[in-house]
Amino acid sequence: MANKYPTEQLKLWGKAKQLREQYYQNYARAKEKGGIRWSGSAWALDAIPAGLGEDVYSLTGEPYAAAVAHDRKFAKECMDAAEAYGFARDLCSYMRIYWGGMHLNKYAFGGEFPKPDFVFQTQICCSHSKWYQHVAKEEKVPEFYLDVGVGPYRDMTDARLDYVANQLHDGIEFVEKASGRKFDDELFIKAVKNEMRSTSRWADICALNKVKPAPLDEKTMYSLYVLCTLSKSSQWCADFMDELYEEVKDRVARGIAAVPNETVRLMTDTQPPWSFLKIFRYLETFGAVSIGSLYTFALEGIWEDKPDGSWGGRTLPWEKGIEINDRDTAVRLYADWNLSKPQWQHFYDPSIKTEMMLRIIREWQVDGVMLHLNRGCEGLSIGIMENRLGIAKAGTPVMTFEGNMGDEREFDEVRTQARVDAFMEQLGMRRQAA
């Protein structure tokens, strides 16, 4: 295929893989070092447990299950175990993978499934609390659930913010009691600042993809944003995101493309079928690059409207003269920061998501949209056909394909490839000779 732009591999690619591997090994070996283990979702407000010490390690369930999903054989083994236990096949596939591994006592990164000391979980998705209620029951560990379902951020009130902030104070009391350790406000404030840095900077990185050619493709971005889903309040994650931003900014300055034959720009939606990521490489044979998605940008990225009307990373409080020197201030700002997360907004109204998707189409110069009708995740797929109608009405070509992020039995590769072929034809694209 003819290359239009220069390309090169990310210099930080190896470091990203190393950090991810170290995260899972640290969790497995935490007890050897006298550390603490806790389990919850990628959306758990992990700066709270970070206040217990620098030897506190988490296992966030969704990225762990996504890693398992890439291993088709082990993923099926886990889901079979969950279904044999009595859980329905139409439940969240991440949840079934996690449960199955726990019941099999097998850890994807070797050895027995590591038992957490406690569960610390955020509730906005319909499955989140039930997921970890079963974990806490089976592992016989204490559990805490934080309700953040207070409505869209555009309708935020002091009372709604207080409701979440007060629960965070309760969460601090819980982690102290569950761990037997005294909570350290300085460590907590440091973790809050790290999370704000990580999530604002990831949004900044995604915003760099507005240029042509795109410096990153979505398949690559999956291996980068995942670090925020693992430990967004850690120093190592915040520092990595700053380092990554500088590299991607340099790629933009030098015109380095993720896809050297970029001709059309696509956008996807929700989690991909993790065991079939090669679909993105197939798109490249048409000269198509997926610049990302609301999921990729905002699962962990925190955004705001910039003075010029564009979307970019949310300004850090201390850059606006707001100091974070005490627990109460940190808790309230932390709650507000997370409640502004774009990916939480569409749980209340699909039209909010449609508006955000149309914004990405405009600002990232998107030519077509691929919607994954993901049976594996009710939370992020809710309202997806309303999103399709809104995108089509706005005049952007859109295709759908059925699948499941974690359960390969729900994905038809041949049929999906045929739908991609038809969509590429609609966009006026032909496969390019190698």
UniProtKB/TrEMBL annotation:
Keywords tagged on the record: Iron, Iron-sulfur, Metal-binding, Oxidoreductase
EC number: 1.3.7.8
GO molecular function, one term: benzoyl-CoA reductase activity
Domain of life according to the entry: Bacteria
Family: Belongs to the FldB/FldC dehydratase alpha/beta subunit family.
Protein's name in the database: Benzoyl-CoA reductase, bzd-type, subunit O
Organism: Aromatoleum bremense
Phylogenetic placement of the source organism: Bacteria, Pseudomonadati, Pseudomonadota, Betaproteobacteria, Rhodocyclales
